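input
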Amino acid sequence: MGKEPIFSVGQQYTVIELTTATRLIFSGRCLLFGVLLSADGDSVRSRVFDSRTGTGKEVLHLEAIDETTVQWNCERGALMENGIYVYVSAVEAHVSVSYIPLEKKSFRGE
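output
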């Protein structure tokens, strides 16, 4: 699970990150462009928060039934002030998040 830039525009780049667990995707201001939820088995849910902890503003709720995929796209990007935190209901859920960071991502030890 990592991030992979898919194109460059000047200093900005789009990141697509895959997760199967509830976690922080990005800490800081960014533009959210899309979320893809795939159910590999049972019905699954994913909730996306403008937050670093999952207690902030919920901006998106997706549900997918057995062996289906649903997606949400925002052509101009949804501004996330605090970051992107994703809740995943089960390990059978595969969530891909595409975003553009608007500030440097902080890592442990920096």
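quick obs: The beta strands are 3-9, 12-19, 23-27, 30-39, 44-50, 57-64, 69-80, 83-88, 93-101.
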